[in-house]
Amino acid sequence: MSPEPLFKSFEHPKLALPNRIVMAPMTRQLSPNGIPDEMVRDYYCRRAEGGVGLIITEGTTIPHQAASSHIQIPRFHDRALEGWAQVVEAVHKAGGKIAPQLWHVGVIRKPGEGPCPDYQTISPSGYLNPNKKVLKPLSLPEINELIVAYTQAAVSARDLGFDALELHGAHGYLIDNFFWEGTNKREDEYGGSLIKRTRFAVAIIESIRAEIGEDFPIILRFSQWKQQDFLAKLAQTPEELAQFLEPLSKAGIDIFHCSTRRFWEAEFAGSELNLAGWTQQLTGKSAISVGSVGLTEEFVATYRDGIAEVANIDLLIERMAANEFDLIAVGRALLANPEWPQLIRNGKMDKVKTFSKDLLVELV
Length: 364
Description:
The chain has 11 helices and 14 strands. The chain has an 8-stranded parallel β-barrel, surrounded by 4 helices. Helix 1 links the parallel strand 3 and strand 4. Helices cover 31% and strands 17% of the residues. Helix 6 crosses helix 7. The chain is an alpha/beta fold.
């Protein structure tokens, strides 16, 4: 099939892109002492040169002592901002656009990990998973400190010249710890019903909007699945998904990044729509789909020494031509092939490389 639906321009009131291909955020742990260096700069520059419409960076941590689980995960505060400024400049010079993914790992961080090993791991109500409570619940002052930290990072993104920002609210990390009933058993305004469990994210979004204004685009990444439970669901039905999305949309999210492990899987019985398709239909806002694009294996298998072969993308093209979702995020295929958009557009599928775990040690 013709790949042209992937290469239609994307015209959003706050963000114009030359095509519909997004580089998915992928954690690499290759920033020395949390500071992006020249290799990080060149890594993103190569993908911009390869024709990606929008780059979303790997998770980069907000200014909070428990935000990071590894000393080489890039930070988004203090001296690290100088490194990110170089990344932005290089990507823009290559003709690309870029958004940082602002991240706090929350309950995923094991005690003693990261650049602040003496600082306590945090979670909304102390739960690591639905059956295990081992941590101290966050106090209201601590929650307010976190909201300020997210806001500070967002202001830095705008000031550094990024084109948008993404909040990481998926996969069992901090914002998702509040979303998911398995880790949020609070009885105050930040816990309870599905709608109430969005209030931490809503407070962050509203605080960011108040500081950066209405014109800077905010993306929210969310997922049904968790690292603690691949079968978990925030919303069991389209009606519940609508309830979950409405307060986030009203607070100021412009684009929803809907993380799934396989983009072709239907989210709810009775419809072929995936999570991004449902989200775009329910909110009327643009959605990014993601999940094993151009590959035969989902990410967990390949990070456990499996090999992901190159896969046909006709189904993706069909769905994008049908306007099920506006944007598609590509991950491991772009790791193995920085020029993936150009190869696809020029019909050179035979030049696309497979992905394996071994590639990770070679990537720049």
